[in-house]
Amino acid sequence: MQGLWLSKGSWAFKSDLLDPVVGLGESLVAVQATGICGTDLALAKGYYDFNGIPGHEFIGRVVSGALTGQRVVADINLGCGQCLRCQAGVHRHCAERVVIGIHQRAGAFAQFLSVPDKNLIPVDEGLRDELAVLAEPVAAALEIIEQMPKPLPSRVLVVGAGRLGLLVAEVLASFDCEVTILVRSLERAAHLQNKTIQVVTSIDSESFGWLVDCSGTSSGLTTALQAAMPQAILVLKSTLTDAAGVDLSPVMVKELTVLGSRCGPMDKALAWLGAGHLQAPKLAYYRFSEIESALAAAKEPSIFKVLLEPDKPSPLS
Ligand SMILES: [Zn+2]
Ligand SMILES: [Zn+2]
Fold it and tell me: Ligand 2 mean position to 75 CA, how many Å?
């Protein structure tokens, strides 16, 4: 099959990838569209030492398995099913877990992938591909709501207007939070659809009791630490692999609560998207064979998100 192979940080389009092995209790899914996110770009820099087919944000159609014919998205964390964490329902923290397209499991940057049936979530036919493909990052944004103590603080600062930061701002605003987003380029702010979101390019005081760092940079984290009021909650949402040089003393001095946040509830993400909170985000579509152009487009502030599609319609879909 056709798709992308990532090895030692370099991307290659291949037409001779081995078809996925479909195990017991798994389905074969034909990929319809798949998103490039910050994690994919981090994998290319060596994060998780990933060699293989990346891609974890996708919408596809089951071509063989229990849900044949169904459009689906997937919970990308596959736990062992046996350990105490899996038994307690937190399989995303299973020590033996593999993660589709991120850690020891082939992902969606190919014509097909195999997914355990229990990880598949059917998508309502009324939800368009261009929105359903955002379910994974929307779920990650909704996870903040799941984790935060209730009632939610009324104000929040989102640091960074990348792919995830924009979605986090939209999701939090939909929960009636007063959202301020700190952007480097005002061009990114043009993607925001909820008009209640305030856009700023600098913060000059310790004025937020709740902050979400989506910047993925040490300078963004530093800004968030400075903008936090005493006893604030700081949610770390993006993967910052090198925080060298970040002064963490504000965490202690201001007695901040730091909350790490990763994957979230896919079913709630589909419901959120289905409720119409997001309309026609500005997407750019590329074929797998156009990966170089796609990666260049992923750096363009004028594009909300880059999607990849299979090069030719798969014969089975
Ligand atoms: Zn992602
Ligand atoms: Zn387990």
Answer: 15
Whether 225 contacts 250, CB under 8 Å: yes
Q: How far apart are CA 101 and CA 74, in angstroms?
A: 12
Average pLDDT over residues 255-269: 96
Q: Is the peptide bond before 250 cis (omega within 30 degrees of 0)?
A: no
Q: What is the pLDDT of residues 33-66, one digit of tens each?
A: 999 998 898 888 877 788 999 999 999 999 999 9
The SS3 of residue 84 is: helix
Share of the chain above pLDDT 70, in %: 98
How many other C-beta atoms are found inside a 10 Å radius of the C-beta of residue 157? 25
Considering just the CA atoms, what is the radius of gyration of the chain in Å? 19
Length reported for the chain: 317
Neighbouring residues of 5: CB distance < 8 A, sequence distance ≥ 6: 11, 12, 13, 14, 17, 52, 53
- Tell me, what amino acid is at 21? V
CA-to-CA distance for 122 and 208, rounded, in angstroms? 38
Question: Looking at beta carbons, which pairs linking 39-43 to residues 24 or more positions away fall under 8 Å?
Answer: 39/102, 39/239, 40/101, 41/295, 41/298, 42/239, 42/241, 43/6, 43/102
Task: Output the pLDDT for position 317.
Answer: 45
CATH numbers and ranges of domains, the chain = 3-134+281-309 (3.90.180.10), 137-260 (3.40.50.720)
Ligand nearest to the CA of 98: 2
Closest ligand to C-alpha of residue 89 is 2
- Cα 56 to averaged position of ligand 1 atoms, centre (Å): 6
**Pair of tokens at residue 291:** 């990966």
